[in-house]
Structures
1.
Amino acid sequence: MHQGIMKAWLDSSHLSGANSTYVEEMYEAYQEDPQSVSDDWRAVFDNLPHANGATADVPEAAHSKVREYFRSLALEGRHKSATRMTDPDVDAKQVKVLQMINAHRFRGHQNANLDPLGLWKREAVSELDPAFHGLTSEDMEREFNTGSFAHGGDTMQLRDLVKALKATYCGSIGAEYMHITDTEEKRWIQQRLEPSLGRANYDKSAKTRILEGLNAAEGMEKYLGAKFPGAKRFSLEGGDALVPMMREIIYRGGEAGTKEIVVGMAHRGRLNLLVNVLGKKPSELFDEFAGKHSDVLNGSGDVKYHQGFSSDFETPGGNVHLALAFNPSHLEIVNPVVMGSVRARLDRRGCDTGLQVMPITIHGDSAIAGQGIVQETFNMSQTRAFKVGGSIRIVVNNQVGFTTNLTEDTRSTEYCTDIAKMVQAPIFHVNADDPEAVAFVAQVAVDYRNAFKRDVVIDLVCYRRHGHNEADEPSATQPLMYAKIKKHPTPRKIYADRLIEESTLGADEVTSMINDYRDALDQGDCVVKEWRPMTLHSVDWTPYINREWDEDYPAAMSLERLENLAQKISYVPENHKLQSRVAKIYKDRVSMANGEKLLDWGFAETLAYASILEDKKRVRITGQDSGRGTFFHRHAVLHNQNDATAYLPLRQVTDDQGPIDISDSVLSEASVLAFEYGYATAEPGGLTIWEAQFGDFANCAQVVIDQFLSSGEQKWGRLCGLTMLLPHGYEGQGPEHSSARLERFLQLCANHNMQVCVPSTPAQVYHMLRRQVVRPMRRPLVVMSPKSLLRHPLAVSSLEELASGTFQNVIAEIDEQDTSKVDRVVFCSGKVYFELLEKRRKENVTNVALVRVEQLYPFPHEDMDKILAQYQHVKDFVWCQEEPQNQGAWYCSQHHFWSAIPAGAQLTYAGREASAAPACGYPGLHAQQQESLINSALKL
């Protein structure tokens, strides 16, 4: 700030040298925490002239110099304004008034009227009392400058100012936003809250719409309670305002240009939203309560409060497509799934602002504070690969977790929403018994999200009228709370009485609304007047439904086309300087493209992506090292050593190719895998890949694998073509860097729910990845991908094998043998094959044949039968694996091997002994075990 401007500011704010002590106190507070002073004061302190050669990186001048600086400016200003009369006491109180305004912005929420039950025991915040600032009853009649407070003009009588501050910050809304560092965002929130004193001036139609939402919420629960007494429904009662809140969010989003909204939530209130917001027919829900849909989708089905739904909702800005995500009981894990679905929809629409598709996640108060996936999802919210333009996060704050007292047992923070402060999200706490405040906050939240592309949180402080479910007796553990709830009127009654009292509606109109809704439920048809039949808002899944594993698909392509692709993806501009090792890799790729060298793993894999892109399909790959590849093999993203710019050869395939995104992810497995699952469920046409840094790390995402990937189709009819690349192989790197836990995936395999493959050559990985896109079937693909095989001299392929071949589920013996002399056949998968092959050749073993099983599930019985036709005389079959006996494929797949071998033959095991740990940690012991299992398999 220029010195002249500063003097003018000091004059206008009545500062004089007499207030230098207070200035020094505020400056000290500013130095400790710049956010502790008002924006006006921070602007002054931010622009103080530096003394003694100080800079922005050097400590500021001594306080005495600051004090003298303000004194000199004030004296100079008084000398130039001789006619101006100042009162030091009034000037000092002016500063205190500004401080009081700031205190309400910072801490008003702590004394806001948020708890409908009045059970919160919150101490009064002294800084919110005018007396704390030395302001007396006499001062109440005086006019003071209101600084940046956006209500009532530049000056206000102190009495009116205090009243306005209390209404804005200590009423039904408690706004937490001063932790945000961006001044523009804070100013925006102040301009939305302060002029209207934290309320909206709704007309009769808007108020009626809000009451209709409350009528629907309460009417639905009472109807279910009477019709199906004691049945679990996870009632919304007490949090009824969620229904009008969601409706206002949809209306506001539609007006702003939102075309799709994806919602993720757990159990509570789900059935209510399905019927009263998304428009599911009550009759269909009642049939589910009656158990009439147990055979839905010919799968296992799922409980009612896990089900998803899609519909269109009419708003003044056009129809909005609504999608409620299917959700298992692992509550918060649906959040990144929703974000992934939203990102896919945004990418398909070419919308990089997030405006056209909005995510809403609805949380419980215990869950949002207690489950780490919430932190992970917040953390990814602004990252390049996972941003969605901000999300709206709603907490249905029941003030109790199952039977647990929240403040004492479920968290260590004042609010359950404090986790959101890590991304500086504004948090609006709101009393659920004030539905107009709820509607107002909903509109502000949508506008903030669209304006700043950031997350925003609504803490709907309510209560749970019944137990955790309707069979529970809550008073056993919360006697005082439930004694209060029994006497507390419902949100609908409170608001209806208020509208009657203010003459907005008559008592007969209120009664008529209740009866009309109940009649609609009796009829069983949709009760949402804004519901519209769905149009093509989302992708068409029709081409991928009811497809079989063995359907033919066009696997081959011309050698000329493949050679052309190879040339394009091995080219790097001369001015893009590569790191020396990377330059060597690309030099080799040029030789491979020219047919001078056989293809390695990295080049074949990249060619698969190039061919998919040339077909105008999308490719998306994420993982902690996916651009480079954990084991330095992919190098799809090339970093210029001079200026750090990135070059992606895969974006130079053709002018009209499909889009490709290869992004290093946040350091998480659970949230990233869930995100990619969500992405793949909303984008079936392309190839979506999640790559683990090491396959073992998939452990951290086990809930996603169990609850979504392996069972989503069986439970919900949800198809998903997500590919998981899990580096796997025993190479002496210890227990946590060897095994991708193959056995866990095989244990989950049933009903042809997913593919588990262990490719062993570059041609195999090429065909496997292309098959995942070209074949019109969308089920998860789990790949035990290699580490040392990436550069193994025998793990190479020719361009011809890629062009004319196909994926081989089983690979027969490759060496020429006299099959009549073979008396043992060894089945194996992955890296161990090459160790067996090399050892057999070295020892000149001619009586053992090696058969590679490249797809362990669905087990390729027909392919295996064709290969074993020449070994029907063999009685000795062996399964050889690197993993311990209780792990790997032995226990989960041996029944397939038994069914494949000739009658009367024996099947034995060659591998490590059973072990509690996946692998040993000593290199010497590893080598000894490895040699032993190889020798055992080959009868050496």
Note: Residues 810-938 form a domain with the Rossmann fold fold (CATH 3.40.50.11610).
2.
Amino acid sequence: MIGRVRVLSGSVRSALRTVLVAGLRGYLGFALRTTRWTIRLSPQSQDWLTGRDGRVAVVAFWHEMLPLSPALWWWAEPHNPALRLRVLISRNQDGRLIADVVAPWRIWSIAGSSDTRGKNKGGANALRQMRRSLRHGCLVAITPDGPRGPRRKVQQGALALARLAGAPVVPVGAACRSISLKTWDRMALPLPFGRGVLACGDPLFLEDQPAESDHALVLEQALNQAMACARSHRGTSLGREDGPQTLAPLNLSPSRLWSAIGVVLTPLLPLFLRWRLARGKELSGRVREKMGYASCARPEGALIWFHAASVGEVISVLPLVQKCLALRADLHVLLTTATVTAARMVEQRLTDARVIHQFMPLDVPLWGRRFLRQWQPQAVVFTESELWPTMIGLCHARNIAVALVNGRMSDRSFRHWRRVPGIARAMLERFAWICPRSPEDAQRLSELGATALLPAGDLKRAAAPLPFDEAAFASLRAFLGGRPIWLVASTHMGEEQALIDVARSLSRDIPELLTIIVPRHPERGAEVAALAGGAPRRQLGQLPQKQDSFWVADTLGELGLFFRLASCVFMGNSLPGCKGGGHNPYEPARLGCVVASGPLTDNFTEAYQRFGDSVAIVPDTQALEDWVRRILSSPALSEQLGHAAREIALADQSLVERLAERVLALAWSC
């Protein structure tokens, strides 16, 4: 009975606290939003407060203006939506209450305060967290006289942090229509429908101060001047640009319409998933993962979420995932995909126990929130063109840093996003950083609103050579007995019949020629084999006999094996008649293959330009036939082109390490 009473009492306290937090947040938000604010900023401080060009600073204000501080954040964040803020708030009961009140406004707390009178209040740990946050691009706000005063007397924490991080201290003051509470700091409780001023002085660089100066006194004077400035100008207008203005939290959803459509469609989407399951496009027993339900438990410790929709994106991101795991032994990775074939590739290529595979939930609010509650990633990395407004907004609301690697924006996607420029800008602004795949992609992303762009770099250029089964390779090479082999890789519907016709024409002059067809989607193996006159299929364990001109390699994850067997390679999805866009030429080139592609290479324009004459672009099937004849008849030319392509493919191997360090910095900045 006593135990039940205690449980009931705890539940009541929890419910009352929830109501109190919601009530305080509602009142504070209403009062600050209805206040007309004038902004008085030192020109030298504005860039530091908005994190422009990667600047970071310690933002200092007196403890009494804690209830007014969200207004400063509401002003700063729209100038840089990727900006993140950490506020030092004591870990006592009152401090945790304040932290919960402001958290939905993306004001995230670091728990701790200065250790005094021999008591450990988490000051040392908090100092380490704040220094780490500054190092990785976050603003850090601190009340130098908190948590228990004396009022308006600077303690050493803010100064020590600034010295350790090498960051300036930006003094901030605020005043508005308010009442002073009877607390040690005379805390200002804002009243609605008033006028207020946010004032900011010049940044203080402690290393520039005279050696004999009292840094605490210098900061006290700067803070008091900022407060005096705010009070003296309260209720006055400083011109159209500076005020007065209404401030409010940044809208965290890139598109309310997109989210609303997701909410409306949510009851129907399970039927859509069942339809996909019936057609073999989902895995039985794992469909609920696409609704945000986890099929396994989250491991303890830090976790980074990587998303790669299909096979191409998985190939791009695998080296980055492996490098992050190698650099941090305490890291776990959640790798999500959208397709079944990509999931199977992850299972084959990533056997590290620290890697968990799940399917990405559909981009609707309910399922996205469920997914994030379960996995609670420290950082998120999307790959190539995976841009999902609802999920990006949900991550932003939880202050989870989101990055984009191998950022790709095809001409077609660019035209589509330009029709909804507001959504595109709001979404791209929220990325902590974007590493575009090419300068052309960087230009398109920039035009759509991306701001934090890194130098272009293609992860597919930096990947390791595709793996292969050495025993299978030796067995197949012996079985094929030196036959000339033409590999047609990653083919799509609409071009395969033309490629088969080319192979038949070649076989009339080169009777021993074996054409290996690797369809992009292995489930189409039977269809492709039928087009090739009932050709043997790898998936069924069938091998090509001497009389067979075709072999359909309809398995997953064996391209490394077939590239090594081939005399020359044609990359599919590139001939007129198919969807077009091309496929990654780096994979065969990295193995010294002689490579050709059709003219439709929009998805890899920069890559093919980089290879120049070492990779052939054939305009039609007749040109392709002539190219294969030339390569098979000239071993010297084949060796020369293969060597040249390999040199280019292996030219940049440092990108993966640079990006891995940036990804880990996102996860360990909190």
Note: The mean pLDDT is 89.
3.
Amino acid sequence: MMKELELNSHLFGGNAPFVEDLYEQYLADPAAIDPKWRDYFDKLQQTDGGNERDIARGPIEESFVRLARQPRLGAVRDVAAEREASRKQVAVLRLIDAHRLLGSRAADLDPLKRMDVAPVPELDPGHYQLSSADMAVQFNCGNLAGPESAPLSDILSRLRQTYCSHIGIESMHITSTRERMWVQAYFEERLSTPQFGVEQKKRMLKQVTAAETMEQYLHRKYVGQKRFSLEGGESFIAAMDHLVQGAGREGVQEMVIGMAHRGRLNVLVNTLGKLPRDLFSEFEGRPTTDLPSGDVKYHNGFSADIPTPAGPIHLSLAFNPSHLEIVNPVVVGSVRARQQRRGDKHGEQVLPVLVHGDSAFIGLGTNQGTFNLSQTRGYGTGGTVHIVINNQVGFTTSDPRDNRSTLYCTDIAKMVEAPVIHVNGDNPEAVCFAVEAALAYRKEFQKDVVIDLVCFRKHGHNEADDPYVTQPMMYRKIAAHPGVRKKYADRLIAEGVVSVEEADGFIQAYREALDRGEHVEQTTLTDYKRNFAIDFSKYMGNHWRTPVATAVPQADLVRLTEKFTSVPEGFKLRNTVEKIVNERREMVAGNVGVDFGMAEHLAYATLLTEGYAVRISGEDSGRGTFNHRHAVLHDQNREKWNEGVYTPLQHLSDNQAHFLVIDSILNEEAVLAFEYGYASSAPEELTIWEAQFGDFANGAQVVIDQFITSGETKWGRLCGLTMMLPHGYDGQGPEHSSARVERYLQLCAEHNIQVVQPTEAAQIFHVLRRQMLRPVRKPLVIIMSKRLLKAKIAASPIEQFTSGEFRNVIGDAAQLDAKKVKRVIVCAGQVYYDLDNARKEREVKDIAVVRIEQLYPFPTEELQAEIAKYPNARELVWVQEEPRNQGAWHQIRHRLEGVMNPKQVLKYAGRQSSASPAVGYMSKHTAQLKAFLDEAMTL
């Protein structure tokens, strides 16, 4: 084949694109092509000299020249002329690839045209020694979409129209040849030029008119109030409408939207159909909902059913705090839950849409984590459509020199090889064209795609901010800009699409509707009943003490244990794992105590067969950080990394609920936010996030503060997320000891969350089952002792699983004469066992030890009843292993005082206050432990 090409090749013929396509295949997978060609390309690369080139095809281009020198059979030619013709053909191919790679840098993207566009020499034919004399010459177009050959002037015109007009495309960073060529073909075939009909153009004009008119109306009616205006980016509302309608046509039935402040009020009214009168009530301090705290209007979410040509689509705008991009993993988590509920494995029915600010998109690390989740097994959603409202000024006063180190704010998306479509916000049609391309790409590849909507911000960061202070040049340009609506209306008037009177009529109709507090058109469906909708009413208004039976008959436990301790025939377990699995059969039979790992399995297995799905994620969740869980088993004889993995809890019965345990990426913030979003949309599923060590949750504190502990009181959002936080002072140093119990207790109020610290295996069984069986959906924080996970002293007899319930307080089981007890020690967590051992070693008979297993909501009645058992005790001593300024002491002291009798005094025993959560020296740890145990045991 290669010899035939050498004999017959001429770069004006059909072989140039053939060789180029062959080289594309070689770059993607050398083994996929003929060995002779592979050897040829290998040699070309070795002789390239290793010099850095702007185009990756350097070696093949040079080979084109050499191939062109071969004489054609039966022809006598001018070698010099042929060589020059070949050089120019290669130059044209390089010019084409240069536009694909660099064309966006010369695109007309900035509505303000305030910065000089740096010349890009590679986009100039002269850079390749192509002159005006070559413009009429026919050249082969390679794999450029369109005719096989064309005059250079036509090729250049098509390239500039495609890559350098109001749309700029970045796709050359995509390593998949199929994906990259799909993007190229999509835009090249259409020349990046939308072809919308008259009615579509009118609809776009109505959308940008609505966006602008609403902002101006609010500006006059509510002078000085913050609303984070969209003015300057009104095309975004046309884009959202086009996205909703286009997604509906493609069969999408739900869309979950996450966005921060800029333009949010406009989206609420003009996209989701919130009544203007309801928005006005919020401006006037008359909220439409009655919540304990509520939130500002530009944080609130909303849901609506919107008609599309293919049927209704349900839109949900997620509630969002001021931490901007933190809502993004919450949204994709919610989408994943909705897809799971529908059985939507490829994301065809539920679509996530994330709207970003330019500085926030690249500046806040949560986006790196969210992108990193996008293609992983436990978190993928079939791709997210990202829209960046790029107002070119960042958050308040910054400019690109200060807020990023990359050329574009969208460069972070290249980490997942997402195509980026830059578009001029002054051109609503181009913006909507970009939306169509994004939807088509996502449908084809189930991957993320980014639209960079380059616009401006008419006002400051908010309406009370004076932007001229820091951006005088930019805002002089903005002051002279007529506005997106005016420019687009003038264009359509010139095209004859609308008249002046019709365009002005859109404004007047919208203003009159706002005066009535209504919409111009009915955009929402008020009586549509959705499939897969969740009924949260059954979880509303129920007290945390609502009784529920969590015990399970032993026969059921034995049957389920047989299922989850069985492996496929020939499946070889690691010896240590096989020992754990075998011991679990002994546990359920009552021959040995049940440990925490087995207790978890029993809880999950029973819930799964009762119809409750279970999802567990964390950095080592399959095995368990402390080698205790082993919910995922690995065949020791497997030969491929993606084979020989077995999850027994997925094979309990044919009609069991879904079970997933997944080892997450190493990013606590994004993963915990994802799981919060998931749990909020899946109340019938036990959703667990497990920290590798409890203090690792520090990296996700914003999720805990602004969503988990306050989402219900601010937004009325119920969430049953469970957090497992390993905790315990075992001499492992500052970072591997404390889960920062005090932080969670400080956030407790209004029965917002539950905080438990179980000391026995049966407790974890009952609390996990209680979390699902009780008609209450509150976040559950489990402060989990690392030491007790496999400790025999913390194992529970099987009888505690077949009867009983979660005990909020555990009284002293020692044989004490209650009347002789002089001191009652109250504690939480594994320190109980240290205290019990110290008491036994010292043969103390007049000190009782009571455990609080639930720190919040505080079990006042149970604790009071236990203390009342010791009428002669004059001291109540709180003992904790955390330093005095940490742990539960300062958060529950007032509660302890509330259960004491008037003659008792309250004391503290524990480590002294410390700036560090724990010491890093074992000798010092041991000395501290001995000291406070002595203090606790000395009357």
Note: The chain has four domains: 2-106+117-144, 198-516, 554-802, 809-937.
4.
Amino acid sequence: MRLQRPTFVFAAFVLASAAAFGVAGHFAATSFIRYQQAHQLDELTEVVLRRAEFAVDFAGASLGELARRDLADCGPATLQAIRLHVYQRSAIKDVRLVNPDGSVICSAYSETLEFDKGWIDRRDMLPSHDKNLSLFRVEQFGGDALGVLKDINGNAALVAILGVNASLFDIMPAELRAHSEVILALSNGEKLGEFLLDPDKALQAPIDLDKNSARFPLHATIRLERGILSTWNNEAYWPTLAVAFAIGALFGGLFARSRRMEGPVADLDRGLAANEFKPYYQPIFELKTGRIKGCEVLARWLLKDGSVVPPMNFIPLAESSGRIQVMTWQILRSALSDLQPLLKANKDFKLSLNVVPKHLLSAGFIETLRRTVMAAQVSARQIVIEVTERDELDDLARAAAVVSELRDCGFRVAIDDVGVGHSGLSRLKGLGANTIKIDKFFVDTITVDASTATIVEMLVALAKDLQMTVVAEGIETEEQVRALISSGVEEGQGYLVSAPLPFPRFNELVESRCLAQSAKLPTDAALVA
């Protein structure tokens, strides 16, 4: 019998590799923690700016709507219409008509003028980068507000007064919340709002993290006690060190087993050649009725042993290696084959497919999409292309042209991850999509954070102004459904109805829902009668 390699040699190699990684583990852990801290704090500062930008975009869109409706005078009927407009938008406290120099002509709610400590001249207002809006601080006795000015014509301009709610800046993690301060200011240093858990307690040896808006004259600052960072470090130190040891052991084991190691990209190629990537389907449903109106197609990797590889373990690699395009077409063809009977039987049913920006802008994308859908004998208007935001759309003009051509061909376009990705609201308008999908982050917090509900309401109002539909992602509870309906959202998807399913189980779900809806019809009709 042939002698096998002694197991103690393999074990010694693994231990030696783990020890080598462990020696450097402390330094690696420290560097990793510092990077994670900097990255997270940078993201939190970006969230402050993003929320402020949402509010300004919301005000600008509202003023634009008033201008289009020719509501820019001080007549009684006009002021009444403006008051109704303000009443329907809780974030806006007042709308005022001003002269070209910025002086107030009249106000929707004239009594609010009594709360102003002063009113600045037009020359002191700060223009945005696109010159369409100007921002300024409105000093009031009850707390400062933000003024957003939009020129209507050469003789007058409209100003929206936005209340600055301190709860909008309550974004810090629990362990940092009592040791930090979040500040929003204009670029000239005038403070608009802040959140500090205990205003009477001074921060000890604070450090500042600053960020400026690329679109508006807004400046966000997170002030943090230096000492709390060491505590934060200690919490993540040992897990990171354990990862370093694990990587060392894994590296040693893999290297010891084989001199020739095939990379994960080769596994992707084998999976594509064997058609192992399959579509899973998650229903999109009406929030009020639960009726399934469509589905989002999601990729899963089904291995020969029956195990399922989640997308986070292969999608980023597929994107970086250029395999995502082949995978996307393979998934779409399989999905069209599965769903063809349902799509032909129900012309209102929609199939949504994720496409990364690089694929959307690639040569021949639209023609390949048209041929694939035509070959399945399915209507183009039932196909929704969801533009994901793992990569930013660097060329917005080109992307808008592609979206326009897609819509001319009958396809619909949705923007995914709205609120946390790269899609500022001005980019949403410029892209010309049909639908926005509110990220799960907002759905998770809508029932516990009043500021989230305000942001969702602004997104819905803006979507309506842009004639777009809204879908909420990641719904898990009935309480979230009620909160989303109250905010104006009509459609959603999430584990409350179903996790992503293979086609046989998805088809059973759709059929059972249809039977349940049909069973309710006679009762409903009787109630109406």
Note: The chain has a mean pLDDT of 84.
